[in-house]
Amino acid sequence: MPIRSRSLAGTLAGTLAAMPLLINVRAGAAQLMSPAAVLPPAVSASLAAMLVAQNAAHGLDASHGVVLARQHPGTQGTQVSRFDQTYKGVRIFGADAVVVTDSAGKPVSVSSSERSYNLGRGAANRLGPSTADFDVTPTLSTRAAIDAALRTLPGGAAGAVYQIPPTAELIIYPIIKTERLSTALTKTDADLNALDVRDVVDSYELAYLVHTRMHLGKRPLFYDTVISAKNGHVLNQWSMLQTVVGVGNSQYNGTVAINTTLTKGSYQMIDSSRGTGGAYGAMAITNADHGTGAGRVYSNASNTWGDGKQYVAGGSTTNANGQTAAVNALWGLMNTYDMLKMAMGWLSLDGHNTATYIAAHVNSGYDNAYYSDTCKCMFIGDGSTFSSLGAIDVIGHEMGHGVTAATSNLTYSGESGGLNESSSDINGEMVEAYARAGGTGSTIPASGNDWGVGKEISKNGTPLRYLFKPSKDGSSPDAWSTSLKRLDVHYSSGPNNRMFYFLSQGSNATPASDFYSKYLIKKPAAMSGIGADKAYRIWFKAATTKFTASTNYADARAKMVLAAQELYGANSREHKAVQRAYAAINVGADIDE
User: Fold this and answer.
1) The dihedral formed by the CA atoms of 66, 70, 71 and 74, expressed in degrees to the nearest 10
2) For residue range 336-390, what is the model confidence (pLDDT) as tens digits?
3) For the segment 17-40, what is each residue's pLDDT rounded down to a tens digit?
4) Which of 426, 260, 437 has the alpha carbon at shortest distance from 333?
5) Which of 61, 151, 219, 334 has CA atoms 20 to 30 A from the CA of 324?
6) Contact partners, residue 259, CB within 8 Å, separation at least 6
7) Mind listing the domains of the chain with CATH numbers?
8) Is the dihedral of CA 100, 104, 106, 108 positive or negative?
């Protein structure tokens, strides 16, 4: 089911058309935080000056700079500042720097991309005269770039309705090639490990990054397209489809408590205890009523909602049967918010406690759920091939895209796109475990999730994806290979999903087992897991405070190893487990426990 656009599914093909500085900190329960304040301008300026000074030390000339892009909370009471790297004032796509600071504004770690190094006259440039004085003057207008992008959209843009007007940003776009390290020149492709190769910049193109967010009929066309600013050619394109306590009769979880608000004698699905600001002042569920927009917030004369049954196509979206999809969504939203807050110390999607919302009943018989970066909200379909898309792991998955968008903003194509999808799959499974254990506490329960994405929405009980053995879906690989970056991101997520399963639960030494990896060759043959709670803490720390937009599998491993070391110590059981878990998917060498 190739659901795209930061959406849930990516299996069942054909069903639808559609220099870190190392520090040691205490591990354990997350430190709860208030909505993070932006660092004082003077502190942000000093961080920028530090990065510029590092540019010079790395062999970059004075044409290189940095621009503050966003700030968000980190783990253990830290703050994270993300800077875009620029050349002659133009942003270099996928080149960013992440600075983690302590409560006093002092840097404790720096993580940055090297995709800017081959521009300018500095010693770092290995491409020579061709990029020594790179021209940043476009010959194509922004309007022409937008028109060129519109012509490439699936089905064309004729008759499409804009959700927001398209935009075009001038960027420097690195053309990346993969090259072997000298130690791997004699290996066959099949024998290559992820650490045998590296991505390097082959050239640069002045380009426009065109954002199009529109609907063609009821089908969302959310795309990012890279258009040459010199001749209008398409360089790349990818889809972008990431109180009062009431009683809800949910479809998948029985009778559940949901937070609503009583206003002028009517109950509304607005949870004033979670999130602030946003479109509705707090977390909310709206009724798209088969349209493409959010619609109105759900309201009801009674504070008992839903009938617990699959929505009957063509029926009312506001009666008890129609309310069930909204109950599913609100319970999922509440549990996702609580898991992130109580276990990770992270508030809402952006870490600043900004409220989001979920629109239920989007389109008609829609077999999809997706996160929209335009509204920073989610849309849930009723399903046709599938049941209602509002299962707990689906909600956790889509909200996970919001966390990624607010932090690393992993580019949604290639290996980084696979990691983006994997991060959401992991988030969905952790939310499921948390919710099944009652949705309370400061740790992720050891069990409760099924390690199969979307099992509940499948009418035959077959998951859309299997974290423990991705290849069981028929399309996802179990391990890294050089072909991974050419796969759809819902399939290239597979190896990292398996890594996380092994890190959490361990592996099996029997070759016939679904939990076996031929790459684990050290002792013991079956690696030991460290439990879901520790595994997720390491992942969350690496993904939110170390990953950059261009992080690939090799880089993810390096930053996961650092995160484990910072949380639990060098050569700790957890530190070794991360190395073994990545070795199990052909990313790095195996080690003895």
Assistant:
1) -90
2) 999 999 999 999 999 999 999 999 999 999 999 999 999 999 999 999 999 999 9
3) 222 222 223 334 444 444 455 789
4) 260
5) 219
6) 243, 244, 245, 246, 271, 272, 273, 274, 330, 334
7) 244-406 (3.10.170.10), 432-583 (1.10.390.10)
8) negative
